[in-house]
UniProtKB/TrEMBL annotation:
InterPro entries: AAA+_ATPase, ABC_transporter-like_ATP-bd, ABC_transporter-like_CS, ABC_transpr_MalK-like, ABC_transpr_MalK/UgpC-like, Mo/tungstate-bd_C_term_dom, NA-bd_OB-fold, P-loop_NTPase. CDD domains: ABC_MalK_N. Gene3D superfamilies: 2.40.50.100, Nucleic acid-binding proteins, P-loop containing nucleotide triphosphate hydrolases. Residues 4-235 form the ABC transporter domain. GO terms for molecular function: ATP binding. This is Glycerol-3-phosphate ABC transporter ATP-binding protein. It comes from the Bacteria. Pfam families: ABC_tran, TOBE_2. Keywords: ATP-binding, Nucleotide-binding, Transport. PROSITE patterns: ABC_TRANSPORTER_1, ABC_TRANSPORTER_2.
């Protein structure tokens, strides 16, 4: 079993502030969990505590049924892949991958078997005799992952392993890591600040801020119903649109009123008593351009951004910027007036004071 349990885990460097503040989480056997959050939120610290290279202030870490707080890192059955490849420059790829096994006194034949198996998986057989200086960034990262694979760990811990790669290589390596997880059938915990990586890779995502979990769920759960505006911002690319709105009751049905545009919601009428003034959050892909002037907002084109076969229309509504994502079928001119509609079933409604999503109360 390679499940992981975090029980009220804390890390405190100073008396004034916790880097991690009594967090608990169950990570299932063979799950791919992504820790997502801004720099300084504690995600890398958490990964190092699981690995055993960062001291635990309070709480327990279990791998399977065993509390590993006092277990040496080398005996925890984990392997870590860092942002820095940390390859020995004077050793060949083969020697880099073999080094940890030699330290553990793994027999030569077994070392060779494991290295060949890892090289086959990562398609780096032709690189085994090369030095790190003769490798590209993507090849170095494959070697670093291969060095982890040969340890045959129960758990893979990855700390922003793709952040040093260019955009094309990052896309390629994301796919390779996803395939690797499926092939090895092991538990993966992956740290990133890139929401595209998180959504692409994770079975579940744990969004962190200020040493705590803000929301844990599948990518679709978090995208569809973020618990608050912080999460909605962090899991949105392009950025989510926000507009001031009010809740209103019409014949027993709750609507979001955005300057006269009425969008039906499934919120209970009781919500209006506490939060009549709200913020409507609408993702760019849930908006559309229409000739219809009914129940739409008139906006002005600022500029267009072409992304492959899609276009992002950057618009101005009153003093707010607004983005609509649509298929690239026609061009729009700066200053052009457009009518924008919104799909009501995808609109999130946030309390203006607490910034909590009112949908999550249900």
């Amino acid at each position: 079993m390679s499940s992981i349990t975090l029980n009220a885990l804390s890390k405190q460097y100073t008396k004034e502030k916790h880097t991690l503040d009594h967090i608990s989480l169950e990570i299932k056997d063979k799950e791919f969990l992504v820790l997502l959050g801004p720099s300084g939120c504690g995600k890398s610290t958490l990964l190092r505590m699981i690995a055993g290279i960062e001291e635990i202030t309070h709480g327990e870490v279990y791998i399977g049924d065993v509390c590993v707080n006092d277990v040496e890192p080398k005996d925890r059955g984990v392997a870590m892949v860092f942002q820095n490849y940390a390859l020995y420059p004077h050793m060949t790829v083969f020697e880099n991958m073999a080094y940890g096994l030699k330290i553990k006194k793994v027999k030569k034949a077994e070392r060779e078997r494991r290295i060949k198996a890892a090289a086959d998986i990562l398609q780096i057989n032709s690189l085994l005799k090369r030095l790190p200086s003769q490798l590209s960034g993507g090849q170095k990262q494959r070697v670093a992952i291969g060095r982890a694979i040969v340890k045959e760990p129960k758990v893979f811990l990855m700390d922003e392993p793709l952040s040093n790669l260019d955009a094309k290589l990052r896309n390629e390596m994301r796919i390779e890591i996803k395939k690797l997880h499926e092939r090895l059938n092991s538990t993966f915990i992956y740290v990133t600040h890139d929401q595209v990586e998180a959504v692409t890779l994770g079975d579940r995502i744990a969004i962190m801020a200020e040493g705590k979990f803000r929301q844990i769920g599948t990518p679709m759960e978090i995208i569809d119903c973020p618990v608050d505006m912080f999460v909605a911002n962090f899991i949105s690319s392009p950025p989510i649109n926000y507009l001031d709105a009010v809740l209103m009751n019409r014949n027993g049905q709750t609507y979001v009123d955005i300057d006269g545009v009425l969008l039906e919601t499934n919120l209970p009428i009781e919500v209006m008593k506490d939060s009549p003034k709200v913020v409507a959050g609408i993702r760019p892909e849930h908006c559309f351009i229409t000739e219809d002037t009914n129940n739409t907002l008139e906006m002005e084109v600022l500029f267009t951004e072409i992304i492959g076969t899609d276009v992002l229309l950057h618009l101005k509504y009153k003093t707010s910027n607004f983005i609509v994502k649509k298929s690239f079928t026609e061009m729009y001119s700066k200053g052009q007036k457009l009518h924008v509609g919104m799909h009501a079933n995808h609109v999130n409604v946030f309390d203006k004071q607490t910034e909590k999503n009112l949908r999550s109360r249900q």
